[in-house]
Design a protein that fits this description.
The protein has about 260 residues and is mainly alpha-helical. The relative contact order is 0.14. It has helices at about 5-20, 20-45, 55-85, 90-95, 100-130, 140-165, 180-185, 200-205, 205-220, 225-255, 260. The protein contains eleven helices and no strands. The chain has one domain (about 20-260). α3 (about 55-85) runs parallel beside α6, α6 (about 140-165) runs antiparallel to α9 and α6 (about 140-165) packs parallel to α10 (about 225-255).
Length: about 260
């Protein structure tokens, strides 16, 4: 066997891995496409916006980055904690104990909350030090923003954990791609109207679009848009109930297949 054959053997090994795992295959084109969508819609919004001095635009971008991190950190806090149990081959031992699935979910959410708060503190300080932006200038409504975006991160995470129950380690890439993939239609940096008309109903189904609409009202008009906050809360409740139902179904299916023991091997 010559060197070229050995090199081809290694190349074919990786091709085979990608061919049998659609999450890995999608990930190849995922990030370039995602960045193009996010900043394309952002540029489209600011190109047609006339804000005095550019200060509101800058504040809107910084506030958007900080608040969207709540959803991202909340989701990653749950999924990475769960993945650590898979990587350590500890999942079977956990569910062989008296621990109930609901109790495990409760612990994952608690860890996620701690990770989110700890992760956001340095970013909040840096935003003030470098950009002279204080997220607390939004007022007490920032607590509603935090809770709604955190809950959104949690139901996304439960959906991802459900996919891990079904597809096992092959779906690991989804843990750090799904929430980021929602960003273009979450309307973090621009309003829903910046999206194409056919995409706007999709955005309206996400709590984040209403939270960030409320953020822009608080930032630019100094008002609390209770209508948007109520819509965000109701959507979060509906999505969370759906995520919990899917989680329960996939957990029971994984237990019947014996996947809880073999997952991670």
């Amino acid at each position: 066997m010559n060197a070229a054959t050995r090199i081809w053997a290694m190349i074919y090994r990786h091709i085979a891995v990608y061919r049998r795992s659609w999450p890995r295959l999608v990930e190849i084109a995922y990030w370039p496409t995602l960045n193009l969508l996010i900043w394309g819609f952002t540029a489209r919004y600011f190109a047609g916006t006339h804000l005095q001095g550019g200060i509101p635009a800058t504040a809107s971008l910084v506030a958007g980055v900080l608040l969207w991190e709540i959803t991202l950190r909340g989701q990653l806090g749950v999924t990475f904690t769960f993945l650590e149990e898979i990587w350590s081959r500890n999942l079977g031992h956990i569910f062989a104990s008296p621990l109930r699935p609901s109790e495990m979910v409760g612990s994952l959410l608690a860890v996620s909350l701690l990770r989110t708060v700890i992760g956001l503190l340095p970013a909040t300080i840096i935003a003030y030090a470098l950009y002279r932006y204080n997220i607390l200038t939004l007022g007490p409504v920032v607590l509603l923003f935090f809770l709604n975006l955190l809950f959104m991160g949690w139901w996304i995470a439960l959906g991802i954990v459900s996919l891990l129950f079904r597809y096992g380690a092959g779906a690991e890439a989804l843990a750090w791609t799904i929430a980021f993939g929602i960003t273009p239609v979450a309307c973090v940096y621009y309003p829903v109207t910046a999206l194409p008309a056919w995409l706007q109903p999709v955005a309206q189904m996400l709590p984040a679009a209403h939270v960030f609409a409320g953020m822009r009202d608080a930032l630019l008009n100094r008002i609390v848009n209770w209508h948007e906050m109520l819509l965000a809360a109701l959507l979060n409740l509906a999505w969370m109930l759906g995520a919990v139902a899917v989680f329960g179904l996939e957990f029971r299916a994984a237990r019947r297949r014996g996947a809880l023991i073999s997952m991670g091997e």
